[in-house]
């Protein structure tokens, strides 16, 4: 990797970390960047997952204020995300990508629609907010998103924001903090699995790790200042970009 290619990957990592902290889908920056510098797809996917883990952790730390009062939710949802991340990582190493590429755009589109129409949909869905448990389908949906996140991860945040915002709590900033924690769990457990059983391009992973950590703190700092309608619009826009990008 030349110095220019290294700088390119570092900048992509910063952009991914920023986007992941605010919405998700940072993989759509770093994965193509790794392919562009000549890293094979599977190796790029594995190295990307390892590199992005510190960035998602930085975003979660940056949103720690929004996590106050959500300990019970984290206790329930973290094990579910962890299990999903492990299964997704195993699937990446053992199955072809064609099946996921067929269903992923549909999932992202569904997530965008749920986020966009959340205020209206919430009127027809009864969520027992006083228990902080939310709708019954939140746990299996978070698990399924964890599987997807461990496998590839692009727009994992969009899906989580749709699930958490609709089924758990309409406050998007608080759900963004929780989303960052769950994404950190998925990315970290997948990264550990890949480090143990797969090849990793450590230079690429290190560059993305440094860039995404910086970006994670930047995204947390400025993302929490977005009003709900702006955050909702950003989620939908990035989701649409994700769908279009994955068609090429």
TrEMBL record:
Keyword terms, alphabetized: Cell membrane, Membrane, Transmembrane, Transmembrane helix, Transport
Bilayer-spanning residue ranges: 74-93, 100-121, 141-168, 180-197, 203-222, 229-246
Localization in the cell: Cell membrane
Subcellular location, principal: membrane
Source organism, top-level taxon: Bacteria
Membrane topology: Multi-pass membrane protein
Keyword Protein biosynthesis: no
Coiled coil: none
Family from the record: Belongs to the 4-toluene sulfonate uptake permease (TSUP) (TC 2.A.102) family.
PANTHER family xref list: MEMBRANE TRANSPORTER PROTEIN YFCA-RELATED (PTHR30269:SF0), TRANSMEMBRANE PROTEIN YFCA (PTHR30269)
Protein name: Probable membrane transporter protein
Species whose genome carries this gene: Kribbella yunnanensis
């Amino acid at each position: 990797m030349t110095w220019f290619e290294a700088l390119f990957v570092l900048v992509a990592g910063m952009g991914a970390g920023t986007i992941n902290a605010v919405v998700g889908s940072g993989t759509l920056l770093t994965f193509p960047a790794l392919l562009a510098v000549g890293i094979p797809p599977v190796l790029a996917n594995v190295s990307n997952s390892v590199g992005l883990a510190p960035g998602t952790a930085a975003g979660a730390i940056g949103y720690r204020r929004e996590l106050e009062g959500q300990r019970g939710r984290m206790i329930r949802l973290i094990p579910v995300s962890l299990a999903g991340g492990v299964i997704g990582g195993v699937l990446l190493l053992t199955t072809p990508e064609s099946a996921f590429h067929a269903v992923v755009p549909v999932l992202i589109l569904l997530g965008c629609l749920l986020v966009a129409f959340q205020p209206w949909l919430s009127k027809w869905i009864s969520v027992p907010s006083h228990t902080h448990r939310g709708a019954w389908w939140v746990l299996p949906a978070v698990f399924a998103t964890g599987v997807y996140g461990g496998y590839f991860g692009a727009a994992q945040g969009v899906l989580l924001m749709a699930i958490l915002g609709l089924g758990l709590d309409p406050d998007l900033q608080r759900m963004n903090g929780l989303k960052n924690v769950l994404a950190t769990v998925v990315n970290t457990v997948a990264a550990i699995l890949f480090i143990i059983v797969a090849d990793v391009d450590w230079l690429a992973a290190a560059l993305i790790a440094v860039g995404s950590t910086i970006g994670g703190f930047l995204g947390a700092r400025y993302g929490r200042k977005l009003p709900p309608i702006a955050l909702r619009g950003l989620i939908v826009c990035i989701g649409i970009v994700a769908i279009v990008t994955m068609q090429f």
